[in-house]
């Protein structure tokens, strides 16, 4: 069922086309592995999702944390329970993207290890 849903979304959004950045430079783009990370997250494989692109798992954790804090603030009628540190979450997410991008390209260029095909 997940394969059919994912296939429909890929066709609808045109996902699966070659990455222009990777085609031109031979390097990974900052989002490389993101689609595969979402697929693995939907399958429940958190380790593979993290290895493909850690931002996806981080984003899912932030959404769950936000929903729990919002629910707690509503249930206990305490608005201060609701997390409002959006700038911090965004900065951490940006740091994850940059670190992931640097690491994958470092391994590719300087170590000769193409990480994404190894994960398949």
Automatic annotation (TrEMBL):
The chain crosses the membrane at residues 55-73, 85-103. It comes from the Bacteria. It holds the Pfam family DUF2752. InterPro entries: DUF2752. Keywords: Membrane, Transmembrane, Transmembrane helix. This is DUF2752 domain-containing protein. It comes from Hungatella hathewayi.
């Amino acid at each position: 069922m997940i394969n059919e849903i994912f296939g429909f979304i890929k066709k609808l959004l045109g996902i699966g086309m070659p990455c222009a950045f990777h085609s031109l430079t031979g390097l990974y783009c900052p989002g490389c592995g993101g689609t595969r990370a979402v697929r693995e997250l939907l399958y429940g494989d958190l380790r593979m999702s993290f290895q493909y692109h850690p931002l996806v798992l981080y984003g899912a954790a932030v959404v769950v944390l936000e929903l729990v804090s919002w629910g707690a603030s509503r249930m206990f009628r305490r608005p201060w329970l609701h997390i409002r540190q959006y700038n911090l979450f965004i900065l951490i997410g940006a740091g994850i993207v940059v670190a992931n991008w640097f690491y994958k390209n470092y391994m590719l260029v300087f170590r000769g290890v193409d990480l994404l095909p190894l994960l398949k």
